[in-house]
């Protein structure tokens, strides 16, 4: 069954390379998580206008993943250019829930739901989302769930 992909508030294209693939020539599933993490870093820097490296470095604010759910609906192959995307599902006091997806054209490949928590890198305890992060998140909030329920 082919799943129709949805568009996300922040999207970037990604070439699938040999290093992403297993011996069957398709993306080895943990590689999607690496690509999604790269996307989140790009989103902070390019989308939110907040340098991700400075958030973790000088500001000592971490964003560890505390919950992650993935559904894989079709394989991606070496040489394909896929679109990775994310939208904000929920903004909490110290947490942020993201919808992430990977698609090739209109075909959904992977969809994920990830919860990040803002933490102090000094104490490794939850802290409120920084004000500048909270202020920048609004334009990436998904208005309503997709009617297709896919990526």
From TrEMBL:
It holds the Pfam family 4HBT_2. It comes from the Bacteria. It comes from Caldimonas thermodepolymerans. One of its GO terms (molecular function) is fatty acyl-CoA hydrolase activity. This is Acyl-CoA thioesterase. PANTHER family: 4-HYDROXYBENZOYL-COA THIOESTERASE FAMILY MEMBER, LONG-CHAIN ACYL-COA THIOESTERASE FADM. SUPFAM superfamilies: Thioesterase/thiol ester dehydrase-isomerase.
């Amino acid at each position: 069954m082919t799943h129709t992909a949805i568009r996300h508030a922040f999207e970037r294209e990604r070439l699938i390379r040999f290093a992403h693939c297993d011996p069957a020539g398709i993306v080895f599933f943990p590689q999607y998580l690496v690509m999604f993490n790269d996307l989140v870093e790009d989103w902070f820097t390019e989308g939110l206008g907040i340098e991700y490296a400075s958030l973790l470095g000088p500001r000592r604010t971490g964003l560890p993943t505390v919950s992650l759910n993935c559904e894989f609906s079709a394989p991606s192959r070496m040489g394909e250019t896929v679109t990775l995307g994310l939208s904000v599902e929920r903004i909490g006091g110290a947490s942020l829930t993201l919808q992430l997806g990977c698609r090739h054209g209109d075909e959904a490949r992977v969809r994920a739901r990830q919860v990040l928590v803002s933490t102090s890198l000094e104490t490794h305890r939850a802290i409120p989302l920084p004000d500048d992060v909270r202020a920048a998140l609004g334009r990436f909030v998904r208005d309503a769930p997709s009617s297709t329920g896919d990526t």
